[in-house]
């Protein structure tokens, strides 16, 4: 019977993700990153929230605890992680560390979302999830409790920027296409996306674009983001 056992037919990243002959997908929980998670010394508030109950999807918010005394409210940065659409998480060091620095360096509310991964969930599932996260943000803006919400009372919902890394850049691009053409603001009002930043965006194909040869995730810094 041993010959009938499922066999590994695809192995990506030396065991990071494996596809078996019966269609099963295995992802390793023991990935050896060359760098640790940045420790939080209390300078950043962090909160995890579920934004899609049907698909059990979560996001992570980052915000400095300082009280804003000026009339200028905080912008919102939506961060979409990379990983070839197949791996990655808001909790990975490459995502978490970057979002920590964005929150402190830009004095912004950073929202890092997870999305359904391939090959179990084929595209455009990831694009649909990113849009669902934007609709969740809209729900917060329209909530009657937003004035008293410690996470949203001092943010500016009509000053949102979407930042995508690698495959996340591809997802951000598709968000821009969906929300562009003048109809996006009405669809998400009062949330308004003011700009998109694509970091080494991945668009596939045999030939690689110049942007795809950009800095690796572990070297993302605010200087690079600027």
UniProtKB/TrEMBL annotation:
Transmembrane segments: none annotated. It holds the Pfam family Abhydrolase_3. One of its GO terms (molecular function) is hydrolase activity. It comes from the Eukaryota. Residues 77-214 form the Alpha/beta hydrolase fold-3 domain. Gene3D superfamilies: alpha/beta hydrolase. Belongs to the 'GDXG' lipolytic enzyme family. This is Alpha/beta hydrolase fold-3 domain-containing protein. It comes from Citrus sinensis.
